[in-house]
Each structure stands twice: as C-alpha cells, then as structure tokens.
Amino acid sequence: MSVKIVPRRSEERGHADHGWLHTFHTFSFASYADWSHDQYGCLRVINEDRVEANTGFGTHPHREFEIFSYVVDGELAHHDSMGNKEVLKRGDVQMTSAGTGIRHSEHAHGPKQVHFLQIWALPYQRGLQPKYYNRHFTDAEKTNKLATIVAPVNSPGVIDSREAPGPTPIHAQLYMHASLVSPQTTLTHALPKPASTSSPAKAYIHVIQKSGYNTGPAKGGRVKVSGAGEEGVVLGEGDGAYIAGETRAELRIENVGDRVCEIVLFDVDAA
C-alpha cells in the first residue's frame, strides 16, 4: 500500500524574531501568508515558539478553535477567562477548547526561556461550550513508542474531564502522537481510516528543533520517513512532512542520526 510523503523544510516555514519571541510557522499565521501551506485538513496551526524569560503573550481572545500547547523545555504560565491558572512543564499538554469564546494569556515562567509547540485545529462542531484540559506524559511513556497524547473526545479511553489519565480530549477529528526515538530505532504506524471515505488517510509529522534553529538534515537529529518498501525522505530538526496514503498503509519512522529525536505525528481527519 503506497504512501506519499511531501517534505516541509524548516527553512521554508514562516519565521519571525521579535526579540522576546522566536517563532516558526508551519502554516500561514500572523504576517506569514502562503496559501499552499494554509492548513492540512482540520490541522490549522503548528507554531514552534521560544519565549524569553519574563515575557509572553498578553491577554487575547480566541473562538471556534481547539488550541493546545506541548511543552518541550522550560515552563509556561497560562491564565484564562474560565478561571484556569496553570504552570505547564515538560511533558504537559494543555488544551483549550475555545468554542464560543475565551480569553487567555501565556508567559514564560521562571528564570529561563520556554520552548513549546502551539497547535490549533478546527472543531467538528461550532458553538461548543468552552472547556479546558490538562494532561502529563513522561519521557518514559514516549521513548521508542508513539504515545497517543491527544484524541477525539468521543474516542475509547478518552475521559472528558479537566484532569485524568489517558489522551487529552479534543473536539476535532485529530489524533496526536509523540515519541522520543533513539538512534537506529524504527517505529511503525498504520494510517487510520479517514472520516470521509472519499479522502485518503492523512498524517503530518514534525521533528522538534532541539539542537538550534534550522539545523537541517546535516546537523542535529535526523529521521527517515517512508512507506513500506519505499526509499523515504530524511527530515532534520524543524522539518515536517505531509503524508497521504491508503487506510492501514504502514508508515515507518527511522532515526538515522546520532542522537535522540523528539517527534510529533498527527493523524488528520481520522475517524
């Protein structure tokens, strides 16, 4: 079963350095507009952000998006109009289902920079009541396996409450998996059934920047992404790839570098 893989190189992403914020945009966002990279199914935003100590995003509104943060390093303080106050640390996943509207702020907490992914998805229904969720996943849970850390709220094993074990609930047809892949290790993943029978199974992979900015496949960590029996594409830190194929087609993710790679993988519009 064939798999099509189209790389999205880090140096081609939207990029801004505001001093207090160093950010990379996989999809069109803020002043970066590229209609060939506007969204992928319900996946609308993947921003890789580094916020300097004692700075952050002031209070601002959102509505009709599922907005979640995946903390890579440092600590992120979150306040919102629903009364939630959290300090998020490495391994935390915080989900804000904005629904009919919320306001929130995010700041670096403590004396160091915070590095995190901010991800937005389009909900499967408009006008939902705003909700907040928080989950934690250890490095051990993600080492050399694809840990499912976000899943649709109505999926088996997903608990619709603020804090609970298991995946973070999301009101979208989206699954997110995370892994720490050791050198010379290969993970496999079967592409899931899409929500629409007329569409191919879709996924998106992103390799988190751990060694610096735009290190490329020649420096930092490297993974090779391929379908069964295919040569595949090598991705460096900050790179991503659009993936499409037949339902249950096998995706292979091999660490071909000399260090642990942290990756996130999204099953997009999956049933």
From TrEMBL:
It holds the Pfam family Pirin. Gene3D superfamilies: Jelly Rolls (2.60.120.10). Coiled coil: none annotated. InterPro entries: Pirin, Pirin_N_dom, RmlC-like_jellyroll, RmlC_Cupin_sf. It comes from the Eukaryota. Residues 12-120 form the Pirin N-terminal domain. Belongs to the pirin family. This is RmlC-like cupin. The lineage of its organism: Eukaryota, Fungi, Dikarya, Basidiomycota, Agaricomycotina.
